[in-house]
Specification:
The protein is of the alpha+beta class. It folds into 2 domains: 47 residues, no CATH class; 107 residues, Arc Repressor Mutant, subunit A (Orthogonal Bundle), CATH 1.10.10. The chain is built from 5 helices and 6 strands. The strands form 3 sheets. Strands 1-2 form a two-stranded antiparallel sheet. It has a two-stranded antiparallel ribbon with strand order 3-4. Strands 5-6 form a two-stranded antiparallel ribbon. Strand 1 and strand 2 form a beta hairpin. The longest helix is centred in the first third of the chain and has 18 residues. It is elongated and about 50 Å long. About 11% of the residues have low confidence.
Length: 157
Amino acid sequence: MVFKVRVEVTDEEGVKTSIEREGDLMSEGFKSATIKSIMRFLEENIPSPSIDPYDIESEDLTIKDRLESFLRYDSKAPKDWFTSSELKRIYEEVYGVSIRLSTLSTYLASMHSEGILIRKGSRAQRKYKVVATKRVEQEHEDSLEMIECIPLREIIR
């Protein structure tokens, strides 16, 4: 069965760029090559985030958005496993604002459900870690940085 996969990106000026692949989705070779091509296309056509995590006054960022940006991009964010209490202390130091532990825990649970964080431990001793990017080596192919465990809706948003 032949399938067609098309991804289109529209920039700020309205210019559309797209990539299209056609083939048998049951073929592992086609799936692998298509995913790699689409990832390369998206990396080239979608700008890196330009969110300033310290811009408290930004109307566009909710507390959850700011927290997610902080965890993903800020050098002061924990790089290994952390508890909600540890994150609360760091977040409050960086932003100079207080956040309730229950609010923070709710956002962390939500980010876990969205695949942004992984977690371990019992409820009383829960620890979180940001899902990392990793290099994937393909035989006869160049290295391609892939995003691990991020739902497709996050990539195309």
